[in-house]
Amino acid sequence: MAMSPEVKLAVFGRAGVGKSALVVRFLTKRFIWEYDPPLESTYRHQASIDEETVSMEILDTAGQEDVLQKEGHMRWGDGFILVYDITDRGSFEDVAPLKGLLDEVKRPKHVPLVLLGNKADLEHARQVATEEGERLAADMACAFYECSACADQVGTGGGVAEAFHELCREIRRR
Ligand code: GDP
Ligand code: MG
Q1: Predicted ipTM > 0.85
Q2: Considering only CA atoms, which of 9, 10, 11, 14 is closest in space to residue 128?
Q3: Is residue 102 within 8 Å of residue 80, measured between CB atoms?
């Protein structure tokens, strides 16, 4: 298998949307209910994607950074997962401004991106329709997934790993 250079992925979204749970899910295939909520961490991971070994560095942001810190993370990253919580409309409304800032920081480059609506297991508490997520992703010209860090393969588009893998593909297409 060929080795690819490292890709740097950053996970953005309001505090509480499940960024850390998603990253841990991706790395360990497990769900862990609670850990130090406001901390930011980086992880290294290798995955086989389309017959190629991709080594990635993943930044799990805290979601409470000021604009300067956000811009720093955006400059660092090659690709971004923008996460909202389908049961929290405000977290969905945070996505477009994040994308705006990303475009500003990365201009004139195209920004590899995926949109992820998390907590799809909480259908009874849903505040953001699947179609709204699809529409926003179409506006941002990126892939869209609804998933759940605590359940496999809930919602529309495959599991958590699929979202990370698609982002890696998108980065390599750049
Ligand atoms: P972060 O601040 O974005 O990193 O969010 P966390 O990963 O710390 O998760 C915030 C809270 O949401 C925790 O109580 C998690 O257990 C919970 N959570 C995260 N993902 C899911 C999910 O997919 N479904 C449900 N029901 N709860 C989740
Ligand atoms: Mg976190």
Answers
A1: yes
A2: 14
A3: yes
Beta-carbon contacts of 28 under 8 Å, excluding residues fewer than 6 positions away, are none
Angle at 151 between CA 73 and CA 54, to 5 degrees: 45
The answer for residues whose C-beta is within 8 angstroms of residue 8's C-beta and 6 or more apart is: 56, 57, 59, 76, 77, 78, 79
Tell me the one-letter amino acid at 83: V
Residue indicated by tokens 């980086």:
42
CB atoms within 10 A of CB 18: 24
What average pLDDT score do residues 10-16 get?
A: 96
pTM to 2 decimal places: 0.93
Residues framing ligand 1 (Cβ under 6 A): 13, 15-21, 33-34, 37, 63, 118-119, 121-122, 148-150
Q: Which of 8-17, 39-48, 114-123 has the lowest mean pLDDT?
A: 39-48
Task: Please report the pLDDT score of residue 173 as a whole number.
Answer: 84
Q: Which of 119, 123, 152 to mutate to test the pocket of ligand 1 (most atoms within 8 A of CB)?
A: 119
Ligand 1 atom with the smallest distance to the CA of 13 is 3
Measured distance CA(151)–CA(121) in Å, rounded: 7
